[in-house]
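From the shared-data thread, chain only:
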Amino acid sequence: MYDIFRPWGEMEWIVKKLNPYIDWMFIGSISPEDRAITAYNFLNKIGINITYSHFIIIKDKPSRHTPTCNNKIKENRKKLFKYNEETEFHLLYEQDNILVNFADQLTELNKNIIFDISCFPKRFFFPLLRRFIASDKNCNLIVTNTLPFQYEHSQPLSESYGNWRTIPLFQDLSEDETKELILFSVGHLPMGAPEPIYDICNSKKIVLYFPFPGHPHSLGPIWRFIHDIEKIVEKRSALEIECISSRDTSEIFDSMKRATDDGQKNAILAPYGPKPFSLAMALFASKYNQPVYYTQPRVYHPGYSKGVQMRGSRPVITAYVIKNNGFNYY
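Structure, as tokens:
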């Protein structure tokens, strides 16, 4: 049982409860999705003091979707409240130091960061978050995630998956035989994940994190995903399914601590579930130096998600306090 209270909840409430007079730096991503610009625009609307803002545009591999993606990015850029700078990256860059240097430059600008991961690919937000956590210059760090109204259901959300490999800055530092666990968060799409783990899964315990309760449209795809994994597991006793709220980053973080005896057991992390689950895995892997594996899509559907969930007149944006006055909750 863990008694650390980690603040998370509605973004407006969280930001104002911390300190309504803090000067913030906002970091986000301009993507084709509607929710990409929601958190920043809403924070400006309610009068949060953002003194510097930086948006990243991540270019996918050229595909049939490229013209539509470019047009949607232009539209979102026009809808954004005035911001300071933007930087363009290619999705499949190879040099880890590119993001490391970028993150370190940002931490020099402001000690208080609001990092919106709503539309960041894991290949980017994992290493950026790790650098923000490691920096002793960041007194306050909040991660935000905006919920879409719906996801694309008629076509694949992503395609052209890369090899099963580690995410930048989350490389494998131990021998494969020393790993006792695979911690796997499940989502809409397998993205080729079950096949690469075939050779290693039967010698290890697999914990599948099931986002429940979740959106009704998600239940079918997620169960099919689990079925794909079950088919390759010879020992059913080695497979454990744990249901956790799709928004509860703190609970899945604690679950991973329990599974690994507070990080004493080496594990392989595979973030294929919702963003709050991926956030927990990024935080856990950063703290305990665990490797994170992923089959990175090279192409995303321009309509990956549509609209923004609303509660009355306010968008549904969840905020997770990572650091407060220099104290790291994770």
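The CA atoms of residues 91 and 121 lie 8 Å apart.
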